[in-house]
């Protein structure tokens, strides 16, 4: 049975367009809504189960757009608002439709923060703290959290079915141990937040750094995601597409993109 990995959102924290911004990237997205980017997240469809990866503040609109009507599990890669801010959108799905708690896998260091942020959701989620390098088995799929570099406890996810995909939406390069494990992956979907100067080199990567990481780990395909488009130099999709055309096997992620595993 085919496993599908779908990118629900491919933008960084501000989204594209941002309500406060009139840069060329935001103008491009306003003129052509197909080029808009919601905050980053993904969903895995194993054919029998659906696994949500991160819950962005845009979650409700993402699920409606992609006609996703059910979920079975939620994995949070880390505890930053643009990756957990949509958890509250799942309350009424659980209470009115699913009628049983969702298993929510979250970073061990985020457990206290979850209870502080969502004291009204104790019956909505069955909380489980994920562990680095533990293999989680689903229908036709294994999922393994590996350490990323993002300033707080953050995982990238290795997904293995017929093909292998590494999803590192927020990271500044990779620890050597992680890089070794994902070497030769069929797909590397990774952080390319900045175009030009990297303002936060200990948390994110630039477009060029992401491309070089793909080469370093010998990824079959490198898919650039978590694209801010605004900083440090505003850039349009048309400009990025032209630039990466010189790099075979490198592509730009977009909202709704599907990768078959």
From TrEMBL:
Residues of the Metallo-beta-lactamase domain: 38-226
Signal peptide, first to last residue: none
InterPro entries for the chain: Metallo-B-lactamas, RibonucZ/Hydroxyglut_hydro
UniProt keyword annotations, A-Z: Hydrolase
Keyword Calcium: no
Keyword Hydrolase attached: yes
Molecular functions (GO terms): hydrolase activity
Pfam families (alphabetical): Lactamase_B_2 (PF12706)
Name of this protein: MBL fold metallo-hydrolase
């Amino acid at each position: 049975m085919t496993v599908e990995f779908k990118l629900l959102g491919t933008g960084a924290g501000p989204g594209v367009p941002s309500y406060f911004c009139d840069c060329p990237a935001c103008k491009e997205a306003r003129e052509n809504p197909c080029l808009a980017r919601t905050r980053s997240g993904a969903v895995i469809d194993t054919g029998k189960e659906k696994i949500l990866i991160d819950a962005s503040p845009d979650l409700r609109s993402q699920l409606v757009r992609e006609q996703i009507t059910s979920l079975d599990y939620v994995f949070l890669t880390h505890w930053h608002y643009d990756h957990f801010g949509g958890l509250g959108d799942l309350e009424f799905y659980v209470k009115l439709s699913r009628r049983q708690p969702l298993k929510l896998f979250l970073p061990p260091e985020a457990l206290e923060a979850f209870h502080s942020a969502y004291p009204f959701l104790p019956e909505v989620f069955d909380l489980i703290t994920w562990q680095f390098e533990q293999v989680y088995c689903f229908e036709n799929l294994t999922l393994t959290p590996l350490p990323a570099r993002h300033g707080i406890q953050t995982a990238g996810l290795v997904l293995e079915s017929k093909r292998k995909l590494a999803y590192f939406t927020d990271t500044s390069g990779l620890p050597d141990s992680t890089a070794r494990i994902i070497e030769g992956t069929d797909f590397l979907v990774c952080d390319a937040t900045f175009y030009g100067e990297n303002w936060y080199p200990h948390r994110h990567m630039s477009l060029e750094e992401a491309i070089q990481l793909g080469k370093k780990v010998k990824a079959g395909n490198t898919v650039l995601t978590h694209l801010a488009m605004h900083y440090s130099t505003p850039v349009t999709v048309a400009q990025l597409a032209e630039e990466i055309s010189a790099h075979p096997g490198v592509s730009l992620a977009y909202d709704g993109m599907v990768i078959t595993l």
